[in-house]
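Q: Please design a sequence for this.
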């Protein structure tokens, strides 16, 4: 074994050394007189600047130099090497084209560098940052067909702001500008910075937009800099309106009429059906609260627009309500395009009409889905779904969804006694775009809050073992504070599980109380709440995702009835003991983007479910599980834990669903794109599940102070095929640490034997899934 590994590492070293040697020989491909450009460097000569100021200015200037040299890794340029060794392709496809133009990188030569242009960039940027008398020179250093350009900057002293004046006059717009001055970005003593001045103009423009100046623009503001009134590198700023500012931009506008076209179609406009602007006085007023709705077929109730529109007659225009209205109209889910126009109706009174041109989505849709799937528990199967959606069920933008489905999973290998699984069911959901409650709920969010009502039934048959009838119903609310924060409160969430046709074969295989709880009658009801925060949609290097869930079942009922299962005071409803527990789960994810094609993703899951009162155990369907394609991928689904319990002691493989009341899991993954739709990953997973209470049939399953020694660890590599409409994921994983091995012998490194076919069969786990694991 050792000799095989030593040969393997020698091969890697030899290959790596060869690659490094070849990467260093890029200059041999250059033609006579050509020089490879290795980059530009800026040196700053100014003793009055601090080291920090020099470093910041140097970094900014070098970032603006063009072009960028060929990318390098530890001084090597492998992409350039691939470009050089690849033959010129005859067509825009094939291996040579891919290697040369997709993997490779065209050489950047000294002749491609406009040094005068870069010198001007350095001087202009320096002046924009307050170094008014900056002068730059450059020099070229070359050796062994490589060239580097060194720019020397003499910036002089940096000018600081000595005073800021906001020029006053008697106009309305100027008075409003004066009210914005306390929060100015231009501070006395700060360096002169053109970027800050631009941001100040944008700030004033945004402030005026909130005060009715719809036609104002940041270009209407000029900031004059005068360095002659002060000495010692000081500059005075004068903020004023440009003399040629249009009169319309200085007027404060209010809303006259609000007109909604909820069935707007651009083709109808071309045919002359709609004419915007139009005279609303000639229309039949189909609305209330001074909103005109042009809907001759009465497809929509006017009330939905009253809730979504934040502009009413007489309101002063402001940009926040403008954007808020558009976002709320889109979030109704019934319109695919939302367009807004403001057209002056009375120039003397400074009023305009607000037009909302809404193009509906297809109101009804019917979709048939056929799916094929496999999982790490050696099951494969297919699923058929028929989904019907109505997006305006009661003419109030209510979304009604109904689905029927059937699925069949069969065993492809693994345990001989595993049985096939058949599922069929139906579910319906009504989503109302408002909070239906005895109290009034006001939201200034850009997202319309929703009331969701769901009903569902699923028939589940495990061949030759048992049948389960699952009923569920819920009533609750979903609302977003903003694009990052979402709340989901189910006031009541009910699940009823009723077993049928439980066979003797099941009882032969289910030899422990825990495994038999699968066919217990279950009645679970209570509120659930989840909070989600994410900023992953932002163009940042570091982003996070967090979801916290609280599930409370039977708490009030258990308190009122005095239920206590441990003291033989178990209470029932309709002859079924109701579950009583508290469950908390936290899912935290962190993402770091190295480049556009590589990133790091990590996830931590921590959860605990505690039974009390009317329950001694957590219902099987509400427990935590570990292993599988979205969990610890080196272990098959639901075969890990609890604790150090060894699942191999269970003779029958079918009932190997191991669950726990406590879960800890940590995942880390490096992701990289290597070619168009082809992505690769390397990952490490760790974690386990444990029990709150000891179980004599599952020794080692209880959570204890030794839980760290019971953490399972797995690692692997994966391929991800990103076809835009879906991501097909293939992850190959192997266990590195097995919690049910003897304590002190749980690290599996010394057991790794790739040449052993039986070892590969038992330890290499292939996960096939859709989408990323987290």
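A: Design:
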């Amino acid at each position: 074994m050792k000799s095989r590994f030593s040969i393997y590492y020698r091969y890697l070293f030899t290959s790596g050394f060869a690659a490094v040697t070849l990467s260093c020989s890029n200059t041999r491909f250059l033609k006579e007189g050509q020089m490879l450009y290795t980059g530009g460097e800026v040196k700053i000569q100014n003793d009055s600047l601090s080291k920090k100021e020099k470093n910041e200015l140097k970094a900014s200037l070098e970032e603006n130099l063009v072009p960028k040299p060929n990318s390098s890794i530890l001084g090597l340029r492998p992409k350039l090497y691939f470009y050089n060794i690849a033959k010129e392709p005859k067509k825009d496809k094939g291996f040579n084209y891919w290697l040369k133009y997709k993997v490779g990188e065209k050489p950047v030569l000294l002749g491609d560098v406009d040094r005068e242009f870069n010198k001007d960039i350095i001087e202009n940027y320096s002046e924009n940052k307050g170094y008014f008398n900056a002068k730059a020179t450059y020099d070229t250093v070359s050796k062994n067909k490589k060239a580097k350009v060194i720019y020397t900057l003499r910036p002089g002293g940096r000018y600081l702001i000595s005073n800021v004046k906001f020029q006053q006059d008697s106009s309305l717009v100027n008075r409003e500008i004066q009210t914005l001055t306390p929060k100015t970005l231009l501070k006395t003593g700060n360096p002169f910075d053109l970027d800050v001045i631009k941001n100040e103009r944008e700030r004033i423009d945004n402030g005026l937009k909130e005060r009715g100046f719809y036609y104002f623009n940041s270009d209407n503001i000029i900031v004059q800099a005068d360095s002659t009134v002060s000495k010692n590198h000081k500059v005075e700023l004068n903020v004023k309106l440009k003399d040629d500012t249009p009169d319309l931009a200085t007027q404060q506008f209010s809303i006259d009429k609000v007109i909604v076209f909820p069935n707007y179609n651009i083709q109808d406009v071309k045919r002359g059906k709609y004419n915007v602007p139009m005279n609303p006085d000639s229309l039949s007023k189909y609305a209330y609260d001074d909103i005109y709705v042009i809907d001759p077929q009465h497809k929509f109730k006017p009330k939905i627009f009253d809730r979504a529109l934040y502009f009413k007659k007489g309101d002063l225009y402001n940009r926040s309500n403008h954007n808020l209205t558009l976002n709320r109209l889109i979030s109704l889910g019934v319109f695919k395009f939302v367009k807004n126009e403001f057209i002056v109706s009375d120039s003397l009174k400074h009023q305009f009409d607000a037009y909302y041109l809404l193009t509906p989505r297809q109101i009804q849709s019917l979709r048939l889905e056929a799916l094929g799937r496999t999982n790490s528990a050696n099951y494969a199967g297919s699923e058929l779904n028929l989904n019907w959606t109505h997006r305006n069920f009661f003419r109030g933008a209510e979304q009604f969804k109904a689905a029927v489905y059937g699925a069949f999973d069969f065993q492809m290998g693994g345990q001989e006694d595993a049985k096939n699984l058949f599922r069929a069911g139906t579910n319906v959901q009504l989503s109302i775009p408002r909070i239906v409650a005895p109290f009034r709920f006001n939201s200034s969010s850009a997202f319309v809050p929703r009331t969701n009502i769901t009903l569902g039934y699923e028939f589940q048959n495990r061949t030759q073992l048992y049948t389960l009838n699952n009923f569920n119903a819920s009533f609750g609310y979903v609302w977003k504070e903003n694009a990052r924060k979402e709340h989901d409160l189910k006031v009541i969430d009910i699940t009823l599980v009723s077993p049928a046709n439980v066979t003797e074969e099941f009882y032969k295989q289910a030899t422990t109380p825990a495994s038999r709880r699968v066919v217990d009658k279950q009645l679970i009801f209570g509120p659930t709440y989840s909070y989600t925060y994410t900023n992953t949609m932002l163009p940042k290097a570091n982003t996070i995702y967090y979801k916290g869930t609280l599930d409370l079942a039977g708490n009030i009922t258990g308190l009122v009835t005095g239920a206590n299962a441990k003291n033989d005071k178990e209470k029932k409803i309709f002859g079924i003991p109701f579950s009583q527990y508290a469950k908390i789960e936290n899912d935290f994810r962190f993402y770091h983007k190295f480049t556009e094609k590589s990133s790091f993703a990590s996830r931590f899951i921590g959860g605990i479910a505690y039974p009390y009162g009317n329950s001694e155990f957590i219902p099987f369907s509400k427990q935590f599980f570990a292993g599988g394609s979205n969990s610890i991928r080196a272990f098959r689904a639901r075969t890990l834990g609890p604790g150090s319990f060894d699942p191999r002691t269970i003779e029958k493989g079918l009932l190997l669903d191991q669950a726990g009341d406590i879960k800890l899991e940590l995942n880390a993954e490096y992701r990289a794109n290597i070619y168009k739709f082809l992505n690769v990953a390397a990952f490490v997973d760790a974690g386990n599940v444990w029990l709150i209470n000891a179980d004599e049939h599952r020794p080692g399953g209880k959570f204890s102070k030794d839980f760290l020694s019971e953490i399972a660890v797995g690692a692997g590599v994966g391929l991800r095929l990103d076809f835009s409409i879906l991501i097909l994921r293939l992850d190959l994983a192997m266990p590195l640490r097995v919690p049910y091995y003897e304590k002190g012998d749980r690290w599996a490194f010394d057991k790794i034997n790739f040449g052993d076919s039986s070892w590969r069969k038992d330890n290499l786990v292939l996960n096939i899934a859709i989408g990323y694991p987290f």
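Q: Thanks. Anything notable?
A: The CA atoms of residues 280 and 292 lie 7 Å apart. Residues 1-20, 412-417 have pLDDT under 50 and may be disordered.
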